[in-house]
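Please produce the structure of this protein holding calcium ion.
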Amino acid sequence: MTQTVTDFAHRSIHVAAQVGKNVTSIYYGSDPHHSYYDGCSAGGRQGITAAYRYPDDFDGIIAGAPAVDWNGVFGSWIIWASYVASGTSSFIPADVWEATVTPEILKQCDALDGRVDGIIVNPDLCRFDPTVLLCTDNDTTNSSGCLAQSQVDGLKKFYQPIYDTNKTLLFSRFDPGAEADMTFGFGMSGTAPPSIEVGSTIHNLEATAFSLSSVLTYPVFGELDRSGTNMQSMGIPIGP
Ligand SMILES: [Ca+2]
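Below is the modeled complex.
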């Protein structure tokens, strides 16, 4: 395991806390009375890791949206991206997401929380049906704000949970409405294959023999060890 992986997994926040306390003591001439940690996403995962491995570092920890299932999070991103990726017949450009898909999701689900305000408070209530966006005149150019059958099919898969070939749940579905902020992050636009950078991240962190190509396949996703053994060997806890 490289030092970089160890630092990422758990050591960096621990060392930063030690140095921060020392600097504070030197500057103020007394030790800090209390120490707190606040982080989100990868930072949330680091907060949970700090609580597990270094419980004396902080008096309180705020772990927001913790990406504890690291492989699941990034593996799902690659799978989602492949459903609507550039270079495929199901590709949905960024402007179509914005002008066509998200408005239809809001039309179907905004009011489910009792208030039409452009916010879907509980995405779990939303059963977005993209078939209403299917072009009636076989127009595949999106010029009329409609979608080709292949794009509709891609969207259906995009908003369904991800299962492996044995029908075992790998990861929950993408929340309807969240696409408004996340489409660029998934490599769903442009001309490059989806999420090579994300795949490389998983590959580097896993430090295993298998190699990821431009697209993460279901078998490889399953190979990422859903039991969490690899993650735990890196010092990353699986669930609180
Ligand atoms: Ca609403």
